Structures
1.
Amino acid sequence: MPSGPRRRPTAVLISGRGSNLQALIDAAAAPDYPAEIVLVLSNRPEAKGLERAAAAGLPTRIVPHGDYPTRAAFEAALSEALSEAGAELVCLAGFMRVLTEAFVGRWQGRLVNIHPSLLPAFPGLDTHARALAAGVKLHGCSVHLVSAEVDQGPIIGQAAVPVLPEDDEAALAARVLEAEHRLFPLCLGLLAEGRVSVEGGRAVIRGAPDAGGLIMNPDQRRPG
Ligand code: GRF
């Protein structure tokens, strides 16, 4: 492989299906993608994402949280696995454990999460059901740097999708998930290229094009 710019060694932490992991694997398959996945770690042995990692020939580790008496002991095992793999960046891709302030502090600016809502709306769980119940017309996903408060760190990027009148939770979740698969590789790439900095608690992206135009639902171009 020709030697291009250095690819940042990146770990992906999962707990389940791993469709976002797959999107990152697919992006990192391009030789010019600025991050390389060096470890896929799951806290659940049955996580489907582990099969995706194995199929891609990536190193995997299982660190079952139940094997550790305390959160600190679990996180010490995580840290050890991450440093053994030489990870410089960490992606939370459906990783269903809340991390302590100490762990988050050690990885500050290098730990990113994907959340299925347009933060700060709908932090926490059941975001799609809550968006439907609230009657919002746009919903989506956010990739953010992780801070000690759950789903509150500086937002690197967001993708919006319309909420349609016939949507149920599954239909809306599927539309958001497609957006997640595009947003996460984009944002990890920006971070890996060193284009993300935090100023006054907000993420600032150097040299990234802004979305053009207005994102609107109902769409004025298609009157009903
Ligand atoms: C995604 O919806 C992600 O936003 C949330 O957990 C889900 C993980 O899905 N944090 P997958 O395992 O990546 O398919």
2.
Amino acid sequence: MSIPAEQYAQIFKSNNAPIEYKKVPVPKPGPDEVLVNVKYTGVCHTDLHAWKGDWPLAIKPNLIGGHEGAGVVVAVGELVEDVKVGDHAGIKWLNGSCGHCEFCMASDEPLCEKALLSGYTVDGTFQQYAIGKAAHVARIPKGLPLDAVAPILCAGVTVYKALKESQAHAGQTVAIVGAGGGLGSLAVQYAKAMGFRVIAVDSGSEKQDMCLNTLGAEEFVDFAKDDVVAKVKSVTGGLGAHAVILLAVSEKPFQQAAEYCRSRGSVVCVGLPANARISAEVFSLVLRMVNIKGSYVGNRLDTQEAIDFFARGLIKAPFKVGKLSELTQVFKLMEENKIAGRYVLDTSK
Ligand code: NAD
Ligand code: ZN
């Protein structure tokens, strides 16, 4: 396979500096790495947080962001045995982990303190050729569309894992907060595929229509118009949702969720708004045995399971396709909460 010497990439020189779309050298894989010709990359709100410097974790200087890259393996390092040139593979948030800490040994690799994060501490997928550790690249069965599968690599895995962490059972009701966004639209689909009933919380008629008529939520609560706590309670017979999955990029829902979570239910925090805190009234939390927890991407098995749901045709969330060169415009739309579903970028343009 012929690999060019140069390629296009989107470079974050530093937080909030104009993003530079320019030619850079194609990287070479190390002994335990693979080089993936990224065909499509999703744009996750995490990429926007990285560029803005929202979190108490520094980005790599001159970072190439992105961590939902689906493409074709074009080169493998000499120690790589199970990934071959020509395979379809995905570069996801967890680019690599140490493999021998107590978390890695327990298959909890997202918790590895030495984890390499694609598009954050190492270069990611806003480029045509990206590097991943062979042990961690997602195995994508041939025949799956690389544009539609790209968002599964972060958004899909993350929401699937969060729904598992909620410990809700089939037939129970899950409130998805931020349901109209990238993670949210996939969360509604995974929740349905897992047998849950869905209350979608977001805002605006486009997202309402998508959640109710395309994704299959049973109720829509508009956070800009409705009293969210009262409405979720009223559509659940006064008891609240069995689980609340918080995907929103704003602090307010993190302050409200415990109030409309059913007794013995779980509030699962996934969204990462800047400088946010979560709070709940202790008295009610204790007497109602509400569980508040965090959930962070998923491990390699969660990734393969999430891809398998997609491969079986159970996950169909809307996405728009743009060009790699349009990243700055996509970030602007995302900042304004104007994207219903996910934006996926074609790296050939
Ligand atoms: P997105 O911008 O596509 O979607 C966010 C949605 O939240 C939008 O539809 C917006 O309208 C909605 N929203 C805003 N305020 C709200 C409110 N008060 N109530 C309900 N909805 C509200 O973002 P995304 O790509 O889906 O990412 C969501 C968050 O998840 C980001 O903070 C991202 O960094 C985080 N994330 C976490 C993990 C993890 O492992 N925990 C993984 C991926 C992304
Ligand atoms: Zn992400």
